[in-house]
């Protein structure tokens, strides 16, 4: 992950850094997301691109557009096999959540169930 020099890595016990902080915001990188969810990185990039392209649809309601800054493309000076710069995407917590809610598989289901429980708990504690 190419975290900026002012980034602060956050990790769990015996785990590589999974998120970092930049300019007061927390980000995850698409390569880490791919590894955690056991997905091919190019599939994660494709899913991000699809999210961003779908919001360009003429019938998309402006009130539900993805805010700027949720997904920030990064290009590495390193090259892939065909000689293109390696790409990744840094995403905010909201960008990550939007992306992960569309994933399938056991790890995705676990994340989605945990997110649902967290929302229900928050609403219960707020009296809503």
Low-confidence stretches: 1-15, 118-123
**Which H/E pattern describes the elements?**
EEEHHEEHH
Number of DSSP helical runs:
4
Count of DSSP E strands?
5
Span between termini: 39 Å
Q: Report the sheet-strand fraction.
A: 15-25%
Indicate the percent of residues in helices.
25-40%
Q: What's the arrangement of strands in the largest beta sheet?
A: 1-2-3-5-4
How large, in whole angstroms, is the Cα Rg?
16 Å
Mean pLDDT metric: 77
Helix/sheet category: alpha+beta
Oligomer: single chain
Note the overall shape.
Answer: globular
Main sheet overview: 5 strands, antiparallel
Q: Which key features would you list for this structure?
A:
128 residues, alpha+beta, 5-stranded antiparallel beta sheet, 4 helices, 5 strands
Describe the structure.
The chain is α+β, with helices and mostly antiparallel strands. It is 39% helix and 23% strand. It has helices spanning 30-36, 41-54, 93-100, 106-126, and strands at residues 8-10, 19-22, 25-29, 71-79, 85-92. It has a 5-stranded antiparallel sheet with strand order 1-2-3-5-4. Helix 1 (30-36) crosses helix 2. The longest helix has 21 residues, at 106-126. It is globular. The model is unreliable at 1-15 and 118-123 (pLDDT under 50).
Protein topology:
Elements lengths: L7 E3 L8 E4 L2 E5 H7 L4 H14 L16 E9 L5 E8 H8 L5 H21 L2
Antiparallel strand pairs: 1-2, 2-3, 3-5, 4-5
Helix pairs in contact: 1-2
In short:
α1 crosses α2. Helix content is 39%, strand content 23%. The chain has 4 helices and 5 strands, in the order βββααββαα.
């Amino acid at each position: 992950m190419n975290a900026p020099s002012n980034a602060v890595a956050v990790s769990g016990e015996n785990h590589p850094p999974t998120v970092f902080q930049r300019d007061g915001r927390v980000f995850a990188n698409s390569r880490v997301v791919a590894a955690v969810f056991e997905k091919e990185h190019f599939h994660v990039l494709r899913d991000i691109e699809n999210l961003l392209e779908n919001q360009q649809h003429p019938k998309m309601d402006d009130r539900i557009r993805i805010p700027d800054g949720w997904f920030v493309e990064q290009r590495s000076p390193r090259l892939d096999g065909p000689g293109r710069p390696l790409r990744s995407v840094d995403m905010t917590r909201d960008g990550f959540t939007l992306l992960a809610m569309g994933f399938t598989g056991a790890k995705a289901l676990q994340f989605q169930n945990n997110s649902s429980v967290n929302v229900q708990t928050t609403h219960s504690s707020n009296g809503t």
